[in-house]
Amino acid sequence: MITLYSYPELFGVADNNGYGLKVYAFLRLTGVPFVHQHIFDASAAPRGQLPYIDDDGETVGDSETIIAYLSHKYGLTIDSGLSLAQHHTDHLITRMLDDLYWVMSYSRWQDENYWPAFRDALLTQHPSLTEDSLRSAQEFNAMRYYYQGIGRYAPAEAYARGLADLQVLADVVPPVGYLHGPAPTTVDAAIYGFVANIFFYPIDTPLRQFVAAHANLVRHCAAIHAAVGSAVLPDEPMAGRSIAR
């Protein structure tokens, strides 16, 4: 049996990290049986990063490596009808989502306009967490952002990068169906992993404002959300204010 280890859910989203949610959605879309274990401590994970899977003793980390491993071992055909050009498009979108990840994470942990709402949501839904532990995590993430580069940007500059990524998605995601036709493929799971972690969070960042203003992104996100067994609708945005606890 496959066990997926990833970060816990938040706001009705099965994983509050885009990479873990991508793998979760991929597993659900392909129908591969698995157990989902939510954890905060990534110290036991390969390279100390979530998500990872344990497949009857075989440990695999990194979302792309996990998907490639599962596709090969279990003969999954979700992408079998794609052309070489479509595979190349998927590769480019996947790398762009890596860029979007940093801006999305920055909006939660570094931007003081939205950090209090994100912190309070975690504390409300996951009582095992403490304000001190989250402050330590915030400080750790600030160091990551600085060395990656996004932490050296002013908020408006950081969001400009993320909005440029989202504009590409808004231009390529169709108004009906999925990226490559009437059935979802792996890239749709990847797009969902990140867009859902923006749209379903009632924290009114510039990223969420953009997604909410584009009907094709909302429809695509909601369609995958339903396909993977989730039915929670987003709450009204909180415009950066803290959630009462």
Topology of this structure?
Blueprint: E1 2-6, H1 18-30, E2 34-38, E3 52-55, E4 58-61, H2 63-73, H3 84-109, H4 115-125, H5 131-148, H6 155-172, H7 186-199, H8 206-212, H9 215-227
Parallel strand pairs: 1-2
Antiparallel strand pairs: 1-3, 3-4
Overview features:
Glutaredoxin; alpha+beta; 245 residues; Glutathione S-transferase Yfyf (Class Pi), Chain A, domain 2; 9 helices; 2 domains; 53% helix; disordered C terminus
Could you walk me through the main structural features you see in this protein, from its secondary elements to its overall organization?
The chain is α+β, with helices and mostly antiparallel strands and 245 residues long. The chain has two domains: 2-73, 3-Layer(aba) Sandwich (Glutaredoxin); 84-227, Glutathione S-transferase Yfyf (Class Pi), Chain A, domain 2. The protein is built from nine helices and four strands; from the N terminus they run βαβββαααααααα. A four-stranded mixed sheet has the order 2-1-3-4, with helices on one face. β3 (52-55) and β4 form a beta hairpin. α1 runs parallel beside α2 (63-73), α1 crosses α7 and α3 (84-109) runs parallel beside α7. It is globular, with a radius of gyration of 17 Å. The termini are far apart. The model is unreliable at 231-236 and 238-245 (pLDDT under 50).
Adjacency order of strands in the biggest sheet: 2-1-3-4
Compute the number of structural domains.
2
Task: Give the beta-strand count.
Answer: 4
Rounded average pLDDT: 92
Q: Could you name the CATH class of the largest domain?
A: Mainly Alpha
Distance between the termini: 38 Å
